[in-house]
Amino acid sequence: MSESTGAEEKRQLGKSSIEPHSNASSTGWHDEEKAQDDTRQNSIAQDSNNTNDLQHIESQSLAGSQLPPPPDGGLHAWLKVFGGFLVYINIWGFTLAYGTFQSYYTFTLLPDQSPSSISWIGTVQGWLLIVVGVLSGPLFDLGYFRSMLYIGNFLIVFGIMMLSLCRTYWQVFLAQGICMGLGAGLLYIPSLALVGIWFERRRAMALGIVMSGIAVGGVIYIIMFDQLIHKAGFPWTIRAIGFVSLGCALLSFPALLSGSGMLARPRKRRALFDNSAVKDKLFLLFTLCTFCNFLGYIVPYFYIPTFAQQKLGSSQSVSLYMLIGALAGSFFGRIGSGLLAHYLGSIVTWALCSFTSGILALCWISIDTQASFIAFSVFWGFLSAALVTLPSAAFANICPDMSRLGTRLGMSWSVSSIATLIGSPIAGALLRTKPNGETDFLGPQLWSGICLLVASGCLCVLWVVTKKKLNKGWLI
């Protein structure tokens, strides 16, 4: 009789552990982390009953790789936001600052290479950043996020230091394109998934803060490059940037690893490819939206300095500060879009920003003065920021099983990475030289604007299908 009663109590306890109520949401992660520590230390007999109960909660909540309800706040949750912010300073900040290198390589380091060839360095870096998500998503689900953090940060810092020694195109391609791209890819999905697991109601806001690190990193690296390149030369300028990157990496480790011991436990092994995703209309529509977005999104960031120098006659320093203006605008745009998505929904806000960014890219065609181009750069950064910030928040809302979030997000981003790979080289190939020797940027301008307008149309379809399938209101 007593044994059956005890079994019934355990079943009730296990059932309550996976129901999303307030106490479980706020304390479940802390209790489970404590339970693991107590088990490893062979806690004393008087606490053994509590430890066994907590272990039973873990086994129930992790059955089928299910995770406890997100705490949606607390010290460990916000430390994940801070750690992700530092990671994004390195991985996306350096990628969006590539316009600085595009200009320097074109006019100084690699003048014998075409703009399209040089842009392949930055796009391969961005492509690897995303496509490695195919591997890093399942690896995260299997609990290898610690190894991914260590190896990814090492490859980024190592790649930057090797870049300081480069003199030829293939050397730059290997160091900046391949090595840094692989390292960034190992960090990309884990930094997003950790925040997605710890937040639900405030997920869009938390991801907005994380991704604002893109702007902060870009601004820091561009200013360092501009201030040091003429004083210290290319090698030591890059090394100085490498030391800043190393500092961010070292600070991110304790922030991202704190309170995440439960995620390192062996869980149900997942396939690299989720077959059910290809039959999910929402997944397919989401992937199409991000693909079209990435075809046009990064083009202005790559060509702002080149356009300013070749079309408007700006100095190298002024052209770089125009790119800084775009990244500074994106800092406020990422936070602002996250706050707006908290009230309007991620998909609605994403669609609005994609549409306005497409219109702004077409307005770029008429710009012929430095003042108007500075205004364009700032507005571009502000409006287009949501095109990177909001997709992750939107995907978490349409993913049917949070335990497969890493795998599915990796699958989607891997397809979208092809757009990142080919978008800017296509834009570079569309550059034309007029009979008077002036470069015509009409092709890249039309390419960017049209791709973003197509993406906004796809997002409208995604919103309609999501509203019907999930039976939600219009704020999605």
From TrEMBL:
Residues 19-28 have a biased composition (Polar residues). This is Major facilitator superfamily (MFS) profile domain-containing protein. GO terms for cellular component: membrane. Its main location: membrane. It comes from Didymosphaeria variabile. The keyword Membrane applies. The keyword Disulfide bond does not apply. PROSITE patterns: MFS (PS50850). Belongs to the major facilitator superfamily. Monocarboxylate porter (TC 2.A.1.13) family.
